[in-house]
Putative gamma-glutamylcyclotransferase (Aspergillus carbonarius), 173 residues
Amino acid sequence: MASLATSLQTSSLPQATSTPITAERESVADTHHRPDLFQSPYFFFYGMLTDPTTLAKVLKLRDRPGLRPAMIMEHGMRLWGEFPALLDGHPEKPIQGVAYEIRSQEEEDRLVEYETDMYRKKGCVIEFRDGSKVPGVTFVWNADPGLLRDSSLDLKDWLLEQRDGCGGDLLGL
């Protein structure tokens, strides 16, 4: 996905700007030097990272990660090529996926690198099948919305297509 992201980047993408370091950014930076400050958030995944094998490779885990079926409500979904992309503030229906509680700043950094600059982290409320809710983080579209196309995307169907097409082990939702 990262190579596809790199090849599709255009001049319409947001440009990095220099901003003063805020207290929030300072505390995030400190977790690299002070692992004891790291708080393990739940991340919500809705595309290829719902596949435990893919997620284990991205995070460089020896074992398959424990994923919990979950959903979020705050976003709409479009397609970027063949990949689903969440949009801010366009809720249409619940987005089904999985949640994973990351264990280190290094895992979070690997997720950010995998998602590329085309996506950015965004807070969300993750709801599990038992009705419990936790604050979490997901990745939302961070580029020109014109690169996305509408779709009557059913994430379950998309995941089945991906599994069948790549012989993967995508989690059935």
About this structure: Residues 1-32 have pLDDT under 50 and may be disordered.
